[in-house]
């Protein structure tokens, strides 16, 4: 199974990169997790940034991708529900699974329209770099649940 994370911006903090790399290593026996970084824009017009970042995100999506966008307005679920969703997509769908993390200003309307499922990590606001680490951890936790490993208690 291939899972892709399309994320706006680069990770600058070493401790976040170290955490992401640790989870990539742990996930590797279960799937090929790829991270695609798109350019983050810093124009004064926030809508212009959102629009340009959205176009870059959409350029990395394919018609057969099952797209899960991370949005504060999305559905807040538990780890077991997320693992069931990943297992169901892996078992019954021919789609590639793609998670999308927008930039600090959020996602464009076009990206939100392309989304198959809107996921929320709760009402709290996180830096998008930290969100990437949290997502990697949740993907690993999902595979731990699917494979009955002790990680998830």
What does this structure look like?
The protein has helices spanning 14-27, 46-59, 79-92, 109-114, 128-146; strands at 2-8, 32-38, 65-76, 96-101, 117-120. The protein has 153 residues and is α/β, with parallel strands linked by helices. The longest helix is centred in the C-terminal third of the chain and has 19 residues, at 128-146. The protein is globular, with a radius of gyration of 15 Å. The relative contact order is 0.24. The model has no long low-confidence stretch (mean pLDDT 94).
The helix/strand class is: alpha/beta
Question: For the residues shown, what is the average pLDDT?
Answer: 94
* Radius of gyration over C-alpha positions, nearest whole angstrom: 15 Å
Shape: globular
Number of strands: 5
Question: Helix and strand string, N-terminal first?
Answer: EHEHEHEHEH
What is the subunit organization of this protein?
single chain
Summarize the biggest pleated sheet.
Answer: 5 strands, parallel
- The rounded distance between the terminal residues' Cα atoms is 24 Å
Q: Number of helical segments?
A: 5
Helix content: 40-55%
Low-confidence stretches: none
Bin the strand percentage.
15-25%
Strand order of the largest sheet: 2-1-4-3-5
């Amino acid at each position: 199974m291939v899972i892709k994370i399309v994320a706006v911006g680069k990770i600058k903090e070493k401790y976040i990169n170290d955490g992401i790399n640790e989870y990539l290593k742990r996930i590797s026996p279960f799937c090929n997790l790829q991270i695609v970084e798109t350019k983050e824009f810093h124009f004064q017009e926030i809508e212009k940034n959102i629009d340009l970042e959205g176009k870059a995100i959409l350029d990395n999506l394919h018609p057969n991708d099952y797209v899960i966008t991370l949005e504060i307005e999305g559905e807040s679920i538990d780890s077991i529900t997320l693992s069931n969703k990943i297992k169901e997509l892996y078992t019954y769908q021919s789609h590639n699974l793609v998670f999308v993390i927008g930039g600090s200003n959020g996602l464009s309307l076009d990206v939100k329209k392309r989304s198959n499922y809107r996921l929320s990590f709760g009402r709290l606001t996180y830096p998008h770099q930290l969100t990437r680490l949290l997502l990697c951890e949740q993907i690993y936790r999902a595979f731990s649940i699917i494979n009955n490993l002790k990680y998830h208690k």
